[in-house]
Amino acid sequence: MRKPIIGGNWKMNRGTPHESKEMLESLIPLVEGINNVDIIIAAPFTVLINAYEILKNTNIKLGAQNMYFEDKGAYTGEISPSFLKDIGVEYIILGHSERRDIFKESDSLINKKLKKALSINLKPIVCIGEHLEEREAGKTKEIIEYQINVTFKDLTSEELQRVVIAYEPIWAIGTGKTATPEQAEEIHIFIREILKKKFNEETANMIRIQYGGSIKPINAEDLFNKENIDGGLVGGASLQANSLSQIIKAADNSYR
Ligand code: PEP
């Protein structure tokens, strides 16, 4: 049985020490004692140090939303993975569709970042997913397979087992349109089939695949009850302690 993982992706929100502290201090008691779910908050860089102090003796782990693939050097404005690791960041979101679409990150760039993250034991959450036009053109599986082939190029099975995949249909992110549990499950099964072909059955069965795209307390349980959906990456609903804790509890209930 795979342990579900819920990641709260704050994006460019809750970025001041005051507002992040308030949110985290509300969340901590609401999810205390939940040990069957890995709980991650991926906060903006500006609050990571404070967030680490607040979260350090709790069951909530710290994540960041992006990194570069070098440790040091003349890369103005970029963020070093080893700096993140040094301040207590454990998880790293890579290849979010906003990074791909707005900042033009390619699958091969994400592959470099992924290898770097693995090499220093940051735990990667790698996002993949199709645009609406691609789904409507019947190309979802083709796109997903391409993203897997390039993003996970030259990884060993052992490395891949340390990755969490977030299947995030781009048309469902921040739109209020959720994929149905059946639509999501179909693609999660497909992802495992590709991984089985490309790596092996053990890896395909072990790897955790989250769903992301307008998860709310109202739809979380039906999604997480699907056999191949191992929790979720949550944007909008992760900004309020109450809604995020309900989603975490739905993941906890799905773990049997
Ligand atoms: C996300 O940012 O990864 C996401 C899924 O956002 P939302 O939950 O707001 O759709």
Biggest sheet features: 8 strands, parallel, barrel
Q: What's the helix-strand series? A: EHEHEHEHHEHHHEHHEHEH
Tell me the CATH superfamily: Aldolase class I
Number of strand elements = 8
Number of helices: 12
Bound molecules: phosphoenolpyruvate
What spatial order of strands do you see in the largest sheet? 1-2-3-4-5-6-7-8
Write down the CATH topology: TIM Barrel
Number of spatially distinct domains: 1
- The CATH C-level name is Alpha Beta
The radius of gyration is 17 Å
Structural class: alpha/beta
As residue ranges, the low-confidence spans are none
From the spread of the alpha carbons, the general shape counts as globular
Helix content: 40-55%
Task: Describe, in plain words, how this protein is organized in 3D.
- The chain is an alpha/beta fold.
- The protein has a single domain (5-255), classed as TIM Barrel.
- It has twelve helices and eight strands.
- The chain has helices spanning 17-31, 48-55, 81-86, 97-102, 107-119, 132-136, 140-151, 157-160, 181-198, 201-206, 217-224, 241-254, and strands at 5-9, 38-42, 60-64, 91-94, 123-128, 164-167, 208-212, 231-234.
- The longest helix has 18 residues, at 181-198.
- The protein is globular.
- It binds phosphoenolpyruvate (PEP).
- Residues 9, 168, 173-174, 212-215, 233-237 line the site of phosphoenolpyruvate.
Keyphrases for this structure?
256 residues, 45% helix, binds phosphoenolpyruvate, eight-stranded parallel beta barrel, TIM Barrel, alpha/beta
Short recap of the structure:
The protein is 45% helix and 15% strand.
